[in-house]
Amino acid sequence: MTEPSIAVAMAGGVAGAGVAMIVPGVDGNALIGGFGGAIFFVVFARDYQPLTRVGYLLVSWVGGYYTAVEAVSRGISQTSGAVAFVAATLCVTAGVGLLEWMRGGQLPSWLRTILRRGAGGKDG
Q1: Cα dihedral angle (123, 110, 107, 54), rounded to 10 degrees?
Q2: In a domain, 98, yes or no
Q3: Residue 82 is part of which domain span?
Q4: What is the pLDDT of residues 13-66, one digit of tens each?
Q5: Is 100 part of a structural domain of the chain?
Q6: I want to staple 48 with a disulfide (CB 3.0 to 4.6 A). Which of 12, 29, 52, 58 is the partner?
Q7: Cα torsion angle, 68, 74, 75, 76, sign
Q8: Is 104 inside a domain boundary?
């Protein structure tokens, strides 16, 4: 069973998304996709305290929304829902990994892979 603070945050998020979608200029697909990606992250982030997970929910939701809107405006994608979902799922994961590395931890494995490929892993 989920903690009460997470359930309240999810209910507030759903209510907020419903209200925000009637505001002109708000991309409803990006809003719902970002919320879905944020919830996906929060549900599987059991290692964190409930209040921390609520904070990550909000940061992930906003990051997913803005990434999707930017991707659509640049012509990278035609629809924003899936982009928002993926971006919301990944933005906090990447941010947490980088913050832990800066605090003296180990470089995240996903970043090591990117740096190895970007540095020309094939002799040049």
Answers
A1: 160
A2: no
A3: 4-88
A4: 667 666 666 666 778 888 889 989 988 888 887 888 888 888 888 899 999 999
A5: no
A6: 52
A7: negative
A8: no
